[in-house]
Amino acid sequence: MKFTGMVLLAITSVASAQNVHWEFSENTNGNNVYWTSSTSVDPSADQYEFTYEITYVGVDIVFLGQIIGPEDVTSQIDPEFLFGTGLVNGPTPIVMMDEALEADADGDTEIDVAANIFMQINGKGFGQFNVTEVFLGDVMVDTGWPFGWQNVDIDRIYMNGYMDITPIIIECPEDTNGDGNVNVSDILAAIGNWGGSGDGDVDGSGIVDVSDLLAIVGAWGPC
Ligand SMILES: [Ca+2]
Ligand SMILES: [Ca+2]
Ligand SMILES: [Ca+2]
After folding, report:
1. Residues measured by CB to lie within 5 Å of ligand 2, the ion
2. SS3 sequence of the chain
3. Which of 12, 74, 145, 184 lies 20 to 30 Å from 213, alpha-carbon distance?
4. Using one digit for the tens of pLDDT, what is the confidence trace for 165-183?
């Protein structure tokens, strides 16, 4: 019984718009990367569910004047950096990731690779993946017989990944408890959470205040 009720609640209060899957495959030898998705999502949705993942990181190295690679280094990168997910209030822009990445792959206390990684759904609903302030240094690698360990320059870095975005339209935000009616129980919910965020913040401003109360009164009755 409880399960049925939850399903009904989901159907009456939330309608998901189309979800999108964007894939990117970029590389840089020091230049800035500015990738933009070819499609967009509704920039004015109430909420956005997002997942991003960098599924592959590779590097080219220069050894004896030859470019060798790309070498898959994905497993050497902190998974926390490679994957993220969340549910955030709209409208866009929604910043999913804004990190200064630094890696000391060979553990000699000098940074070998650094870059600023920025991922967002921009104000027009397009996905963006930016890689800026790229630094490619050198790294000790075991080149095998006959040269053994060598200090080599990193020439290029590759990153493949995707973003999954689901814009969510809440059909009747004034119905705080999702029972299909805007009535006194929704007023009480807003008053009970006065000054807070979340329940009762029907206009998504981040705080429950008089404008939310007015919205609830304005939407009085069945959704
Ligand atoms: Ca190093
Ligand atoms: Ca209600
Ligand atoms: Ca509010």
Report:
1. 175, 177, 179, 181, 186
2. CHHHHHHHHHHHHEEECCCEEEEEEEEECCCCEEEEEEEECCCCCCEEEEEEEEEEEEEEEEECCEEEEEEECHHHCCHHHHEEEEEEECCCCEEEEEEEEEECCCCCCCCCEEEEEEEEECCCCEEEEEEEEEEECEEEEECCCCCCEEEEEEEEEEEEEEEEEEEEEECCCCCCCCCCEECHHHHHHHHHCCCCCCCCCCCCCCCCCHHHHHHHHHCCEEC
3. 12
4. 999 988 888 999 989 999 9
